[in-house]
Design a protein that fits this description.
Elements lengths: L7 H7 L3 E5 L13 H17 L2 H19 L4 E8 L11 E8 L10 E7 L4 H22 L9 E7 L4 E7 L2 E8 L1
Parallel strand pairs: 1-7, 4-5
Antiparallel strand pairs: 2-3, 3-4, 5-6, 6-7
Helix pairs in contact: 1-4, 2-3
Amino acid sequence: MAYSDFSVEQVLDTFALKLVEQELFPSLAIATKASSWLIETLDKGKRFALTTSSEKAKSEFLIAPILLEVEAHFSEKIAIYSGKNLDGDRATGLFGECDFIIGKGSISTIISTPIIAIAEAKRDNLENGIGQCAAQICGAISYNKKHIKQQETNIERVYGCVTTGNLWQFLKLENKTLTIDRNVI
């Protein structure tokens, strides 16, 4: 079993998680406006990515530019990894490729920073990606516990999102509770 084989129910059962559906970011205020580069890039990219229905196109033309914009605002504070394998715990099925992994710290050849978020692109349906993303979040927490020195940081909360390019749904895993955002944006 790999990340892509998990349903939400399997993640909850396998890792003894509690499920909560609520608004994840009730008072989030966007303090930064999108750059003209991002607006122009997304405008060009969405015409192509949304008509092809390809997950790869959505990743490259919609998600990657947004993550690059975020990285520009948090330079040297986050690392973005694209298409990397994440071996969280092979014995429990927590392995496979992630579309995007966001780490805390600067980028390196291998994932050497604590993982703080996962982004997963899906062709048509958010529901199809929620189980996979939830499993990837579990894998990220397992990876952090195995690879990140405890004295450096203690990352017990990891976020994730599933997107079709048009729709975005966010998840959070903390203290054995998987929260799925009620809002789809």
